[in-house]
Amino acid sequence: MKKFRFDFTKLFSNTEIWKDGITIGLLATLETLLCIEAIDKLDRRNRITPINRELVAQGIGNMTCGLLGAIPMTAVVVRGSANVDAGARTKLSAFTHGLFLLLAVLLVPFLLNKIPYASLAAILIITGYNPDKT
Fold this sequence. Notes:
With 134 residues, this protein is mainly α. It has helices spanning 8-13, 15-42, 51-68, 77-85, 92-107, 109-112, 117-129. It is 70% helix and 0% strand.
């Protein structure tokens, strides 16, 4: 039986991989910057997000995602606006959100698989639209 060998030099010399990686990185950065601007405008306490720290954290997270085979991550306006609307005052709300997601995925994936996609879509639409904002 032949042994599996992987040549990393060929991988890193492939220009298509570099082009795709840079494009995805720029798009994720742009989306995060737009999200930060939107959430900062929604914040009633007029706090300013430290953009450099946010982008460094996103970069480290995306490199980790790449090493683990996961998809890239970006900031999301709907999640941030839900935190602002709920009266979140510290970063603990974002940490708690992530912790509950992790626990749900690790402890009860069989229950998550029973949730119909249509109901998840409805929750996203209502959260994004939220008619009481008008």
